[in-house]
Amino acid sequence: MSVPAKNIPGLLDEHHSDAGGYFSHLDALEAESIFILREVAAECRNAALLFSGGKDSAVALHLARKAYFPEKVGFTLLHVDTEHNYPEVIEFRDRIAEKFGCKLVVRSLEDSIKRGTIRMKSPDEARNPYQSVTLLEAIAEFEFDACIGGGRRDEEKARAKERIFSFRDEFGQWDPKNQRPELWELYNTRVHKGENMRVFPISNWTELDVWQYILREKIELPEIYFAHERDIVRRSGVLVPVTHLTPPKPGETIEKITCRFRTVGDIPCTAPVESTAATIEDIVRETAVTRITERGATRLDDQTSDAAMERRKKEGYF
User: Fold this and answer.
1) pLDDT band at 236 (very low <50, low <70, confident <90, very high)
2) 234 is in which domain, residue-wise?
3) Residues 250 and 240 sit within 8 Å (Cβ to Cβ)
4) How far apart are alpha carbons 134 and 317 in whole angstroms?
5) Are 56 and 113 contained in the same domain?
6) Domain for residue 94, yes or no?
């Protein structure tokens, strides 16, 4: 049943509700996410919000700003930087953190490599699978008891198994068979020293929900999400951007196409899709009719199968 917006003081205004002033599905998702973030603020001593500059983390930060309003966001922004990121996204990350007066902590895989805590098989190996090491080091360094992320259940099956408040032991490990119940939105946030929670305030959102919310709230994003021209090669049905980290292989033909990114991660493991969607309205329409999953069309690595992702999450991956 729809709830009249006027019955929820201070939460909505006229552009936040459906025609007729009724509580929309975006209002419901927003209210749930803000409730979760306020639970983190109230129950956790030292929480970090994982902020990469991608669309999901931008939405999570926007929700955190609403949760803390009129004060500044009380969470530290944390980014585990592989140093293989798209420069447009890193520039956006730094600019937004400064714009909203947020404390930003960046920890680099390169530093972990120099310390010897990460040992790569080859210099050109994808760094994405090693992020958990640097993340766990950052959690230990700052003694974070909660880390907030923009993961959603619809991304892949391993994420769908997790609770909103996902417990990690003193080794950063997740046990999918031993999770805390979350009946009636009651969350158990108790952790001992060294343990922590991973919290997913937009877990119940879909990719379309995220884009509709970005449209409604006018959330700023990196230009890489919108249609632009880029050199690519076609490899095994995926568009591979031509960069210093992903050069063309012998015999491949470089094409300049109009494309955009649906999800943004490391250069070596994130691909664009052909698209002319140059505005958020265009992206909403495109997302509403696509039959290809967000990650299914845009991942270049072979580490994101359901079994591989679950294994990585057990080891501490976010």
Assistant:
1) confident
2) 223-289
3) no
4) 10
5) yes
6) yes
